[in-house]
Design goal:
Number of domains: 2
Number of strands: 14
InterPro entries: Trp_synth_b_CS, Trp_synth_beta, Trp_synth_beta/beta-like, TrpB-like_PALP, TrpB-like_PALP_sf
CATH architecture of the largest domain: 3-Layer(aba) Sandwich
Pathway: Amino-acid biosynthesis; L-tryptophan biosynthesis; L-tryptophan from chorismate: step 5/5
Bound molecules: pyridoxal-5'-phosphate
Helix content: 40-55%
Keywords: Amino-acid biosynthesis, Aromatic amino acid biosynthesis, Lyase, Pyridoxal phosphate, Tryptophan biosynthesis
CATH topology of the largest domain: Rossmann fold
Number of helices: 17
Pfam families: PALP
Catalytic activity: (1S,2R)-1-C-(indol-3-yl)glycerol 3-phosphate + L-serine = D-glyceraldehyde 3-phosphate + L-tryptophan + H2O
Amino acid sequence: MSTKFEFAPMPDDTGHFGSYGGSMVPPPLEKAIAEVTIAYESIRQDPAFRKELHTLYKHYVGRPSPIFFAKRLSDAIGGAKIYLKREDLNHTGAHKINHAIGEALLAKYMGKKKVVAETGAGQHGVAMATACALVGIECEIHMGQIDIEKEAPNVTRMKVLGCKVVPVTFGTRTLKDAVDSAFEAYLADPENQLYAIGSVVGPHPFPMMVRDFQQIIGEEARDQFQEMEGRLPDYVMACVGGGSNAIGLFTAFLNDPKVNIVGVEPAGKGLDTSEHAATMTLGKPGAIHGFKCYVLQDEEGEPLPVHSIASGLDYPGVGPQHSYLKDIGRVEYQSATDQECLDAFMTLSRKEGIIPALESAHAVAYAMKLAKQLSPEQSILVNLSGRGDKDLDFVVEKLGL
Ligand SMILES: *Cc1c(COP(=O)(O)O)cnc(C)c1O
């Protein structure tokens, strides 16, 4: 038993979490990515880097983010007590700023002039543009033309922050081709640029690096909860897209065998339809974007189209560490539908005056479902990964409010 929960530092030297992860990139990228790994391995131990990062977490992001006991919500459900880790209160309104600052600082320490990245709905783009403005480094974000038209406010934010937004007009003109476009731009000048991924996905060292930068969520939460309640929560949970906010919370609890850990995936219109993004629940081991993980794929191993009401969760792959944690049974992966997500969005807003991001509302939805089956002595800690301002127009239209 004890050995099962003694987690060795992960990943291994080759960037693998069990059989997942690794780095399978075209030869021209191999050298550039290997350079990032070497630089990060030395910088992550550098006291000056760690001090600068933690100073910015405190004085810029506003960390530590509080934990809030959602009493009216818990009472309304009538089961376990639900607590919220308030990542929505961070500067820019979500957890992404934690790794964006880490990546921008890394670029600075590596002596790079520019950060290059892609974005889907624009959340990673805005977080990177913010961090680059803060650190004083150029930022170039590749975004599909269709997404640019859909997400105008985020495009405006990036421009105001001094970031160059590159429209991607080939292929699907969405995230999938924005990834290729950003990779190409990075390869044109890896000497002066750093490629910055927006979740715990992609080739090694990104899943490790982004996890390290998000780990602060769980470190704080574990101490805060213990101080509030004199014990650890019975359950911790978070929504899983690529899995960065989830692994950020989970890491601090992996060696606490009494703490149940749950990742919540988007079940979209239902697991029995083809319109979902429940990668761990219905996918199979495979490869995507240069690494191995669970993938929603067709017979040929091509990634399937995915759907979620929360654009930050619709990805057909998932972080390699999550894939590993599922296989060894340390983390349980569940799902919530679009409808359950909308219900949780409205319930949390009206019971607590907290409007969650649609992504985060998936975790709240599953917590509400689970709480009913537990007793009032038990507790669930939910990572509220972001605030819902960005989703208001969509929800109002959808529900006809
Ligand atoms: C991007 C995003 C997510 C999903 O990303 P993960 O890497 O799975 O955490 C979740 N919540 C919010 C608010 C986001 O912006």
